[in-house]
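RECORD TYPE: protein structure
NAME: Haloacid dehalogenase-like hydrolase
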Amino acid sequence: MPKITTILLDCDNTLVLSEELAFEGCADLINEIAASKSLPLAQPFTGPTLLSEFVGQNFRGMMTSLSQRYGFALPEDELAGYVRREEDVVISKLEEKLVACPGVDAVLPRLRDAGYRLAVVSSSALRRVKASIDKVGQAGYFGGDAYSAATSLPVPTSKPDPAVYLFAMEKMGVEAGECVAVEDSKSGTLSGTRAGIKVVGYVGPYEEGQKGEMEKTLREAGAVVVMRDWSEFEECLAKIERGEV
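PREDICTED:
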Protein backbone atom coordinates (compact mmCIF):
# COMPACT_ATOMS: atom_id res chain seq x y z
CA MET A 1 0.00 0.00 0.00
CA PRO A 2 1.19 3.59 -0.63
CA LYS A 3 3.15 5.34 2.09
CA ILE A 4 1.17 8.04 3.94
CA THR A 5 2.83 11.37 3.17
CA THR A 6 0.11 13.93 3.83
CA ILE A 7 -2.28 14.73 6.68
CA LEU A 8 -5.36 16.78 5.69
CA LEU A 9 -7.02 18.43 8.69
CA ASP A 10 -10.44 19.93 9.06
CA CYS A 11 -10.26 23.26 10.91
CA ASP A 12 -13.39 23.90 12.98
CA ASN A 13 -13.50 21.77 16.16
CA THR A 14 -10.63 19.66 14.81
CA LEU A 15 -7.73 22.12 15.05
CA VAL A 16 -9.53 24.94 16.90
CA LEU A 17 -12.59 25.13 19.16
CA SER A 18 -14.46 27.44 16.84
CA GLU A 19 -17.85 25.87 16.15
CA GLU A 20 -19.64 27.13 19.25
CA LEU A 21 -18.29 30.67 18.80
CA ALA A 22 -19.06 30.69 15.08
CA PHE A 23 -22.61 29.37 15.44
CA GLU A 24 -23.29 31.89 18.21
CA GLY A 25 -22.46 34.72 15.81
CA CYS A 26 -24.20 33.03 12.92
CA ALA A 27 -27.51 32.46 14.73
CA ASP A 28 -28.18 36.19 15.14
CA LEU A 29 -27.65 36.82 11.43
CA ILE A 30 -29.83 33.89 10.33
CA ASN A 31 -32.64 35.04 12.65
CA GLU A 32 -32.42 38.51 11.12
CA ILE A 33 -32.63 37.05 7.59
CA ALA A 34 -35.52 34.77 8.62
CA ALA A 35 -37.45 37.76 10.01
CA SER A 36 -36.81 39.80 6.85
CA LYS A 37 -38.25 36.96 4.74
CA SER A 38 -41.09 36.15 7.19
CA LEU A 39 -39.94 32.54 7.56
CA PRO A 40 -42.16 30.55 9.94
CA LEU A 41 -39.40 29.39 12.31
CA ALA A 42 -40.81 27.42 15.26
CA GLN A 43 -38.46 29.50 17.40
CA PRO A 44 -35.41 31.68 16.73
CA PHE A 45 -32.11 29.86 16.30
CA THR A 46 -29.53 29.94 19.07
CA GLY A 47 -25.87 28.99 18.71
CA PRO A 48 -26.47 25.47 20.15
CA THR A 49 -29.62 24.74 18.07
CA LEU A 50 -27.92 25.91 14.87
CA LEU A 51 -24.84 23.84 15.73
CA SER A 52 -26.85 20.66 16.36
CA GLU A 53 -28.70 21.04 13.07
CA PHE A 54 -25.92 22.20 10.76
CA VAL A 55 -22.59 20.97 12.24
CA GLY A 56 -19.98 20.57 9.50
CA GLN A 57 -21.78 22.83 7.01
CA ASN A 58 -20.59 26.29 6.11
CA PHE A 59 -22.88 29.33 6.16
CA ARG A 60 -23.57 29.08 2.41
CA GLY A 61 -24.68 25.48 2.92
CA MET A 62 -26.93 26.46 5.84
CA MET A 63 -28.62 29.24 3.85
CA THR A 64 -29.12 26.94 0.87
CA SER A 65 -30.72 24.31 3.15
CA LEU A 66 -33.03 26.92 4.69
CA SER A 67 -34.06 28.30 1.28
CA GLN A 68 -34.98 24.78 0.15
CA ARG A 69 -36.83 24.00 3.39
CA TYR A 70 -38.92 27.19 3.39
CA GLY A 71 -39.16 27.66 -0.37
CA PHE A 72 -37.75 31.18 -0.71
CA ALA A 73 -35.57 32.51 -3.51
CA LEU A 74 -31.95 33.26 -2.69
CA PRO A 75 -30.20 34.95 -5.62
CA GLU A 76 -26.41 34.55 -5.70
CA ASP A 77 -25.68 38.26 -5.19
CA GLU A 78 -27.92 38.37 -2.11
CA LEU A 79 -26.35 35.17 -0.72
CA ALA A 80 -22.83 36.52 -1.36
CA GLY A 81 -23.70 39.63 0.66
CA TYR A 82 -24.91 37.51 3.59
CA VAL A 83 -21.79 35.34 3.36
CA ARG A 84 -19.53 38.41 3.66
CA ARG A 85 -21.48 39.68 6.68
CA GLU A 86 -21.31 36.28 8.36
CA GLU A 87 -17.53 36.09 7.83
CA ASP A 88 -17.05 39.47 9.51
CA VAL A 89 -19.25 38.58 12.49
CA VAL A 90 -17.60 35.20 13.05
CA ILE A 91 -14.00 36.34 12.56
CA SER A 92 -14.56 39.08 15.13
CA LYS A 93 -15.70 36.46 17.68
CA LEU A 94 -12.83 34.10 16.84
CA GLU A 95 -10.18 36.80 17.17
CA GLU A 96 -11.55 37.60 20.61
CA LYS A 97 -11.98 34.12 22.15
CA LEU A 98 -10.59 31.28 19.98
CA VAL A 99 -8.38 28.52 21.46
CA ALA A 100 -6.85 25.36 19.99
CA CYS A 101 -8.39 21.92 20.49
CA PRO A 102 -6.82 20.24 23.54
CA GLY A 103 -3.66 18.33 22.71
CA VAL A 104 -3.36 19.21 19.02
CA ASP A 105 -0.49 21.65 19.53
CA ALA A 106 1.65 18.83 20.94
CA VAL A 107 0.97 16.60 17.93
CA LEU A 108 1.45 19.02 15.01
CA PRO A 109 5.20 19.60 15.54
CA ARG A 110 5.81 15.85 15.87
CA LEU A 111 4.01 15.19 12.58
CA ARG A 112 5.97 17.96 10.86
CA ASP A 113 9.27 16.72 12.28
CA ALA A 114 8.44 13.16 11.14
CA GLY A 115 8.21 14.49 7.57
CA TYR A 116 4.46 14.55 6.99
CA ARG A 117 3.05 17.38 4.91
CA LEU A 118 0.16 19.10 6.70
CA ALA A 119 -2.77 20.95 5.16
CA VAL A 120 -6.05 22.47 6.33
CA VAL A 121 -9.12 21.43 4.32
CA SER A 122 -12.25 23.22 5.53
CA SER A 123 -15.79 24.13 4.53
CA SER A 124 -15.28 27.56 6.09
CA ALA A 125 -14.16 30.63 4.16
CA LEU A 126 -10.40 30.86 3.72
CA ARG A 127 -10.26 34.23 5.46
CA ARG A 128 -11.86 32.64 8.53
CA VAL A 129 -9.57 29.58 8.37
CA LYS A 130 -6.47 31.78 8.20
CA ALA A 131 -7.72 34.01 11.02
CA SER A 132 -8.29 30.88 13.13
CA ILE A 133 -4.90 29.24 12.65
CA ASP A 134 -3.15 32.62 13.00
CA LYS A 135 -4.95 33.34 16.27
CA VAL A 136 -3.82 30.06 17.89
CA GLY A 137 -0.30 30.07 16.40
CA GLN A 138 -0.70 27.06 14.08
CA ALA A 139 -0.27 28.75 10.68
CA GLY A 140 3.44 27.87 10.43
CA TYR A 141 2.71 24.14 10.25
CA PHE A 142 0.80 24.42 6.98
CA GLY A 143 3.05 26.48 4.72
CA GLY A 144 0.17 28.03 2.82
CA ASP A 145 -1.65 24.71 2.30
CA ALA A 146 -5.10 25.81 3.42
CA TYR A 147 -8.13 25.08 1.24
CA SER A 148 -11.75 26.20 1.58
CA ALA A 149 -14.90 24.72 0.04
CA ALA A 150 -16.49 28.16 0.39
CA THR A 151 -13.80 30.30 -1.28
CA SER A 152 -10.97 28.25 -2.85
CA LEU A 153 -13.02 26.38 -5.45
CA PRO A 154 -14.16 27.64 -8.87
CA VAL A 155 -17.74 26.93 -7.74
CA PRO A 156 -18.35 27.39 -3.98
CA THR A 157 -19.71 24.36 -2.15
CA SER A 158 -19.70 22.75 1.30
CA LYS A 159 -18.80 19.38 2.72
CA PRO A 160 -20.11 16.60 2.31
CA ASP A 161 -19.29 17.41 -1.32
CA PRO A 162 -15.79 15.91 -1.82
CA ALA A 163 -14.77 18.77 -4.13
CA VAL A 164 -12.56 20.57 -1.59
CA TYR A 165 -10.56 17.42 -0.84
CA LEU A 166 -10.14 16.66 -4.55
CA PHE A 167 -9.03 20.27 -5.11
CA ALA A 168 -6.54 20.18 -2.23
CA MET A 169 -4.97 16.93 -3.47
CA GLU A 170 -4.71 18.28 -7.01
CA LYS A 171 -3.02 21.48 -5.80
CA MET A 172 -0.62 19.54 -3.56
CA GLY A 173 0.16 16.90 -6.17
CA VAL A 174 -0.81 13.94 -3.97
CA GLU A 175 -3.06 10.89 -4.40
CA ALA A 176 -5.84 9.82 -2.04
CA GLY A 177 -3.95 6.67 -1.05
CA GLU A 178 -1.08 8.68 0.46
CA CYS A 179 -3.39 10.94 2.50
CA VAL A 180 -5.17 10.65 5.84
CA ALA A 181 -7.91 13.15 6.78
CA VAL A 182 -9.09 14.15 10.26
CA GLU A 183 -12.74 15.16 10.66
CA ASP A 184 -15.15 15.80 13.55
CA SER A 185 -18.47 15.82 11.66
CA LYS A 186 -20.60 13.51 9.54
CA SER A 187 -20.49 15.89 6.57
CA GLY A 188 -16.71 16.24 6.78
CA THR A 189 -16.19 12.49 7.11
CA LEU A 190 -18.41 11.86 4.08
CA SER A 191 -16.47 14.49 2.13
CA GLY A 192 -13.10 12.86 2.80
CA THR A 193 -14.39 9.33 2.29
CA ARG A 194 -16.05 10.24 -1.02
CA ALA A 195 -12.70 11.65 -2.16
CA GLY A 196 -11.19 8.21 -1.52
CA ILE A 197 -9.26 9.23 1.60
CA LYS A 198 -9.08 7.25 4.84
CA VAL A 199 -10.59 9.41 7.57
CA VAL A 200 -9.76 9.51 11.28
CA GLY A 201 -12.87 10.63 13.15
CA TYR A 202 -12.40 12.98 16.12
CA VAL A 203 -15.08 13.30 18.81
CA GLY A 204 -13.08 15.27 21.39
CA PRO A 205 -15.11 18.51 21.30
CA TYR A 206 -18.48 16.83 21.86
CA GLU A 207 -20.13 16.62 25.28
CA GLU A 208 -19.25 13.42 27.15
CA GLY A 209 -22.76 12.04 26.71
CA GLN A 210 -22.66 12.61 22.94
CA LYS A 211 -19.29 11.03 22.19
CA GLY A 212 -20.50 7.45 21.83
CA GLU A 213 -23.30 8.44 19.44
CA MET A 214 -20.96 10.66 17.41
CA GLU A 215 -18.38 7.89 17.18
CA LYS A 216 -21.11 5.65 15.71
CA THR A 217 -22.16 8.43 13.31
CA LEU A 218 -18.61 9.04 12.08
CA ARG A 219 -17.93 5.33 11.61
CA GLU A 220 -21.17 4.97 9.63
CA ALA A 221 -20.06 7.94 7.50
CA GLY A 222 -16.83 6.10 6.69
CA ALA A 223 -14.26 6.92 9.38
CA VAL A 224 -11.86 3.95 9.56
CA VAL A 225 -10.87 4.74 13.17
CA VAL A 226 -12.12 7.24 15.77
CA MET A 227 -10.17 9.09 18.47
CA ARG A 228 -11.45 10.88 21.55
CA ASP A 229 -8.27 12.85 22.18
CA TRP A 230 -5.39 14.11 20.04
CA SER A 231 -3.00 12.01 22.14
CA GLU A 232 -4.44 8.98 20.28
CA PHE A 233 -3.76 10.30 16.77
CA GLU A 234 -0.33 8.85 16.14
CA GLU A 235 -1.51 5.35 17.03
CA CYS A 236 -4.55 5.82 14.74
CA LEU A 237 -2.19 6.87 11.96
CA ALA A 238 0.08 3.89 12.64
CA LYS A 239 -2.90 1.51 12.31
CA ILE A 240 -3.69 2.98 8.90
CA GLU A 241 -0.04 2.77 7.84
CA ARG A 242 0.14 -0.87 8.93
CA GLY A 243 -2.95 -1.64 6.88
CA GLU A 244 -4.99 -2.68 9.93
CA VAL A 245 -7.92 -0.37 9.06
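COMMENT: The radius of gyration is 17 Å.
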